[in-house]
Every structure is written in structure tokens, then in C-alpha cells.
Design brief:
By secondary structure, the protein is an alpha+beta fold. Helices cover 37% and strands 22% of the residues. The strands form 2 sheets. A 3-stranded antiparallel beta sheet has the order 4-3-5. Strands 1-2 form a two-stranded antiparallel sheet. Strand 1 and strand 2 form a beta hairpin.
Length: 169
């Protein structure tokens, strides 16, 4: 029995009891037995009551979102958020660093509930110290620049990303 069916059954019973009470039929009497048990005795009405099948709340309200749909929506929001974080980092790179501006710098970092970066670690160097320093500066300056969507919750997100350089091609 679903929660909606339970609620509908409770409402139907409540309505029947109220109807009986308003029609002047005796309300249920409570007696306590000798062993401290409560005995409920309903006085049956003269005519039988026929109750129609109750409507469930699921039928009355909008369709509920399935788990797959929520997970798909969360994945899309996460992908869009990570793309925005990457764009914010890449927008903060220097345009002319050193003579060789070609390389990728890999980082691991944690994004907290407010969108700030913590525990930034260099995973892969580009081979050019100037590019590595600039990439780290870009990552640190992008911290908190992109607000975190509420759908993602406030737990830490541990991610890996690459800062790409292709200057002088």
C-alpha cells in the first residue's frame, strides 16, 4: 500500500465516522478490560455503508519525477557546472607565457559547497614551469567564481581537470 493509498483510506474512514456521528448513530465506545486492554465497540448503523474505491493522491497530483529523470537532470547540471568551472579557469590564463605556449597542465582539486576550491594539487606538468605556474594561478583565481547549483548539494566534489595552452601555433 503506497503512502497515497494510506492517506486516502484514512480520509475515507474519517469521513465515514463523521457521517455516522452527524447522523446520530452512537460513536464508538471505549471500555477497558481487566487486563488493561482497550476494547473498541462500534455500533453498526441500520443500513450498510458502501464506500467507493478511494482516489489516490498520485492520481490527483502531477506525475512524480522518476529516479532516472532526477539522476539525468543532476548529471546534466553537474556537466554544465563543470564546463562553467573549466571556462572560468581558462578565461584567467595569461595569453602570452614564455616562448613555448603549448602544453597541458593537470590538476586535482576539491570544490566545496560554496564553489570555492581547496586541496589544489598539480598532477601533470606541461614541462614548462611558466605554463605550470600560470595554470595554477588561473585555477586559484577562479575559485568561487562560479556559483554551485543547489541541485548538486553542499558535499565536496573531487575533480580532475586539464588546463590547456596552445599559444604560438
Amino acid at each position: 500500500m503506497t503512502d497515497g493509498e494510506r492517506i486516502a483510506a484514512a480520509i475515507a474512514i474519517s469521513l465515514a465516522l463523521h457521517w455516522l456521528f452527524l447522523k446520530g448513530i452512537a460513536p464508538p465506545s471505549l471500555e477497558t478490560g481487566s487486563s488493561d486492554t482497550i476494547v473498541v465497540d462500534f455500533a453498526p448503523p441500520d443500513a450498510a455503508i458502501a464506500l467507493a474505491a478511494p482516489l489516490t493522491l498520485e492520481e490527483a497530483g502531477p506525475p512524480q519525477e522518476s529516479r532516472e529523470t532526477r539522476a539525468d537532470r543532476r548529471r546534466k547540471v553537474l556537466a554544465a557546472y563543470l564546463e562553467a568551472v573549466s571556462d572560468a579557469i581558462h578565461a584567467r590564463r595569461m595569453t602570452a607565457v614564455g616562448s613555448s605556449g603549448i602544453g597541458n597542465v593537470g590538476f586535482a582539486l576539491t570544490i566545496d559547497g560554496s564553489g570555492n576550491f581547496a586541496d589544489v594539487q598539480l598532477l601533470q606538468s606541461s614541462g614548462n614551469p611558466a605554463l605550470d605556474r600560470d595554470a595554477q594561478r588561473a585555477v586559484l583565481s577562479a575559485s568561487g567564481a562560479v556559483p554551485r547549483p543547489p541541485l548538486l548539494g553542499s558535499g565536496p566534489l573531487r575533480i580532475r581537470l586539464r588546463v590547456k595552452y596552445q599559444y604560438g601555433l
